[in-house]
Amino acid sequence: MVNNDGLIAAFLLDGKGGGQRVGWNEIRQWTSSDGLLWVHLNFTAPEAQQWITEESQLEDVVGEVLLADESRPRVTGFDDGLLIALRGVNLNPGADPEDMVSLRMWAEKNRIITTRRRKLLSVEDLCSAIEKGKGPRTSGEFLEDVADRLMSRMGGVIGDLEDKVAELEEAVLTKESHELRPQLAAIRRDAIYLRRYMAPQREAISRLQSEKISWFTDEDTLRLRESYDHLTRYIEDLDAARERAAVTQEELMSRLSEQMDTRMYVLSIVAAIFLPLGFLTGLLGINVGGIPGAEYKAAFALFCLLLVVVIVAEIVIFKKKRWM
């Protein structure tokens, strides 16, 4: 739960996968000899801002990034620490997954500070894992765990997106076009938004692997490479989903064009058949003297028979010319 003072969660990790929850008093009294400290803050709270700027002993540029309203995925090394900004999908109730949530991190050998504005389920999962004794043991493992959990949540959203594309591919020949066009547009928009943030995140994780930090081991680098590979695959899946949606939209437009051509063809045939009939009825319907058959009782029947003959003759001509 988020407190009014901005402290969402804080743990003093035991180096075995577990940890003890601590509060502001323990955070302020902590020293590096006490073990690995993780502090997770809501940076919009005044007390959290004060602690970061005045008590955390961080460099000004680090504090500014941790408190920034918006930040793109990035990794920057400072001495023996890492300043990291990553993004995760927004799975809060009523939110759009493509409206991604930013997580900012400062990592040292014995201290990790993370800040966010909106809730991230990936971080809540990490808190639960620590309470169960299945969390990270070092700062390097913490960064790997966070990156991996962010990727896992993204995988679920991308999988749902691919399922929607598959459903629309099957429905394109059965449902009405006005139902499918907005759905296809929404899928393409979501894929573009997700890729917009995931591509820089891939570059950030790639940069994280190349940073030379004393407490970052070869095993940490190897595990980060797996997260990088997963993210690359997700981006490729997004590109594939977007291309499939584009192909489906082209197929839909082709189907609409065929339907329009068919309707125009029928209308053209009907117009061609009734054009001479309209000419004849219009000609004989003018209210002037000298109209043939005006005095003859069977004239109307004969005229109707003439119209039938004209229709039959037109149909025969159309069939010979293969117009119908």
Structural commentary:
This protein has helices at residues 24-29, 46-55, 60-66, 121-131, 139-171, 177-210, 218-284, 299-320, and strands at residues 7-13, 19-21, 36-42, 74-78, 81-88, 101-107, 111-116. Helix content is 59%, strand content 13%. The mean pLDDT is 83. It has 2 domains: 7-255, 2-Layer Sandwich (Beta Polymerase, domain 2), CATH 3.30.460; 262-320, Up-down Bundle (Methane Monooxygenase Hydroxylase, Chain G, domain 1), CATH 1.20.58. Strands 2-1-3-7-6-5-4 form a 7-stranded mixed sheet, with helices on both faces. It is built from 8 helices and 7 strands. It is rod-shaped, with a radius of gyration of 35 Å. It is of the alpha+beta class and 324 residues long. Helix 4 crosses helix 5, helix 5 (139-171) packs parallel to helix 7 and helix 7 (218-284) runs antiparallel to helix 8 (299-320).
Entry summary:
The protein is of the alpha+beta class and 324 residues long. Helix content is 59%, strand content 13%. The chain folds into two domains: 7-255, Beta Polymerase, domain 2 (2-Layer Sandwich), CATH 3.30.460; 262-320, Methane Monooxygenase Hydroxylase, Chain G, domain 1 (Up-down Bundle).
SSE topology:
Elements: E1 7-13, E2 19-21, H1 24-29, E3 36-42, H2 46-55, H3 60-66, E4 74-78, E5 81-88, E6 101-107, E7 111-116, H4 121-131, H5 139-171, H6 177-210, H7 218-284, H8 299-320
Parallel strand pairs: 3-7
Antiparallel strand pairs: 1-2, 1-3, 4-5, 5-6, 6-7
